[in-house]
Design brief:
Distance between the termini: 21 Å
Radius of gyration: 16 Å
Shape: globular
Order of helices and strands: EHEHEHEHEEHEHEHEHH
Strand content: 15-25%
Number of helices: 9
Largest sheet: 4 strands, parallel
Strand order of the largest sheet: 3-2-1-9
Length: about 210
């Protein structure tokens, strides 16, 4: 496998069928988990900004695993968008979308997925000139049935649903015309990271990659 830096796809939604959503509590886990995902056929990672080491973890992955597309998730404040860019993030994901947060993410020049959970929020993002977005929390907000229902009235919107999705339900979402990928935290459960079971992470990634 080439160790050169991965090229961002034309659309974030087309990068991988399942976007690994990863919480890193220990900085030393960042590089091994990224390598396990790449070896499993998922060369992308959304690393959430929920822990004190998150930005350093992004920096480590960007430097040491350039073949993976590393992004920052759980971007909830405008300042975090710039911090993620400076750390080496190559895309951004937010759970929601306020005007100031949208503006900050646009200003980074990075591709990003703003979060939506209602039809009104989807329309607001479309009015801002964006057609690709996150649907969060997916299961709690109506799941695949909701996205299927809005596909006709808002056909321009495409989604990465995240939140409560499992390996068993991912296919229901991926079968929808307005879904490009799903976000999955089941690939990197806390116990596997705690135990350093990178072989199991790789196996889970390999199974998810086959969902194309």
């Amino acid at each position: 496998m080439s160790r050169s830096e991965s090229r961002p796809p034309a659309s974030l939604l087309d990068a991988v069928p399942v976007m690994p959503v990863v919480v890193i509590d220990r900085l030393e886990d960042a590089v091994p988990v990224a390598r396990a995902l790449v070896d499993g056929g998922l060369p992308a990672i959304e690393l959430t900004l929920r822990t004190p080491v998150a930005l350093e973890a992004i920096r480590a992955i960007a430097t040491q695993v350039p073949e993976i597309l590393v992004g920052a998730g759980t971007v909830v404040a405008p300042a975090q968008a710039r911090e993620a860019l400076d750390a080496g993030a190559r895309f951004l994901v937010s759970p929601g979308a306020t005007p100031s947060l949208l503006s900050a993410m646009v200003d980074t020049g990075l591709p990003f997925l703003p979060g939506t959970a209602t039809v009104s929020e989807v329309l607001a993002v479309l009015e801002a000139g964006l057609t690709e977005m996150k649907f969060f929390p997916a299961e709690a907000s109506g799941g695949a049935a909701f996205l299927k229902a809005i596909s006709s009235p808002v056909p321009a919107a495409r989604f990465c649903p995240t939140g409560g999705i499992t390996a068993a339900t991912a296919g229901d979402y991926l079968a929808l015309a307005n879904v490009g990928c799903v976000g999955g935290s089941w690939l990197t459960p806390a116990d596997l990271l705690r135990d350093g079971d990178w072989a199991r992470v790789e196996a889970l990634a390999r199974a998810a990659a086959a969902l194309r």
